[in-house]
């Protein structure tokens, strides 16, 4: 009789040990969020476009802090992201910025390079103003819209 109880008790102890030592091996791993996201958007333009000689470049640029000078835009150059060049002399355009590091972006602008100094000749021509102008990137895609009114440019430096 003792021998007939030994096998079930031994199996029960082994099973208990295996279940107690299991750390959710069959559960899917917790997914870490992507370290970057995407900002995509549309831009509408109004007013008279600047002269062609002052349109060197035009891009959407998300920034983590408001710049006080054009050089401030490049102060964190290793984390600076921006769109491909935008089209000139159009009513509407779209953009996409891939691999935007997660975080809060508080100054999101369509920036115009108006001269040959790539680090100094920039000015904002339109600002994202919904959600208090803040874009939060957290491994996903954020879609925004911006209006650029060439007759009513935002102040720079920001007030």
TrEMBL record:
<protein>
    <recommendedName>
        <fullName>Lipoprotein</fullName>
    </recommendedName>
</protein>
<keyword id="KW-0732">Signal</keyword>
<feature type="signal peptide">
    <location>
        <begin position="1"/>
        <end position="20"/>
    </location>
</feature>
